[in-house]
User: Fold this.
Amino acid sequence: MASGSHAHGSGVRPMRAERSGALKGACTVPGDKSISHRALILGLLSVGETTVSGLLEGEDVMRTADAARALGATVDHLGPGSWRVLGMGIGTLLEPKGALDFGNAGTGSRLMMGVIGGHPITATIDGDASLRKRPMGRILDPLKKMGVEVIAAAEGNRCPLTIRGAKDCIPIEYQTPVASAQIKSAVLFCGLNAPGETTVIEAEASRDHTEKMLAYFGAEITSVPHGPHGRRVTLKGRPELTPRPIVVPADPSSAAFPMVAALIVPGSEVVVRSVMMNPLRIGLITTLKEMGADITELERRIEGGEEVADLRVRHSALKGVHVPAERAPSMIDEYPVLAVAAAFATGETRMNGLKELRVKESDRLAAVADGLAANGVAHEIVGDDLVVSGRGKPAKGGGLVATHMDHRIAMSFLVMGLASEKPVQVDDTSFIATSFPDFVPLMTRLGGSLS
Ligand code: S3P
Assistant:
């Protein structure tokens, strides 16, 4: 049973980043977190053996592996990044014996709620103190329409919560209230065991890994434009999913940290290898280029069904820009590190439409603003927008940043400290292990001073 306490049992680990010499060298960041969760889920839902290479072996994904085991799959670690899932197939999942503890992972918990929702089993979903604060009603609402029963939930539809999946799953057409791949994916995963067509409509397109991977495993699924920025996704229920080998490309959301570090530390030149360039994930790269970042694609190619590129990033004089709200879904996890880049840019960077940041691993809008304040960076929150006023020279630094169990807050402000006038401290780095276990050694190898 989850305790709602610290995710790792290893205690709080503060860290300090200080002004570093030029960052140099090539690096490979871990596999994409979104694809890693989905690889294990698709393995669970197809009959037979799915092999995965490049899986992110971070704590979030390991919780999804544990949940897949509890639901009946055999999940084996074959070697670094190399995994095998022996799946049970749609409709055959077992009722888990204990509560499923997803730790810090919103994606794992929400996607698995959809999977469970399509099966006549009862399961309790729980996680750490951060996950217990996050809204789950956005997933329960459509699942209830599909026949899922909520047996128990903490106040405000939060974890721990117990659901009973649908005996006869009802296919629905659902318009998501916010652009969220987690909502879309939960509905589609539930719809896998519904007779007929399940449709999800989104006003702004969110990441499309679930659709692409379901198609790769043989499901009939279509995605067509809906309005100026949206999509209408339709899945035919009860497909026979056929296991296929999955190659997980490097996570652009993790690549963001060495990239921004290279942009703000003078003299730097870093190559980040094989970064996934899925158009629905690279809003940060678009934005940084608009800011004047020297980012060059050395080689674009297809790996594992996704476009990837080696990215060469050089220190650059950045200027403030306006980031439109409609770009948010394609860079939703990158705003904390963009705010750091903006602190070093000349002039104002206005980031519009950041409401969703309030319900991530922490209230990221507040956590970023507090971190900027602690380090002498002028900024303002206006409604759901964040405005950062850069000085066109190193941020002052010198602050202690509260990370609120949020890996991306910890990594973003450590990056700031590598180039700020005074060192930046973060109160806890232990949650970095949820998504980027190798972050500190990787940044250190490039020349970053972290201690
Ligand atoms: C994810 C979707 C995003 C993102 C999260 C991963 C996914 O959340 O923030 O880190 O893998 O589907 P929302 O879809 O709720 O915006």
Notes: Residues 33-247 form a domain with the UDP-n-acetylglucosamine1-carboxyvinyl-transferase; Chain fold (CATH 3.65.10.10). The longest helix spans residues 33-45. Confidence is low (pLDDT under 50) at residues 1-7.
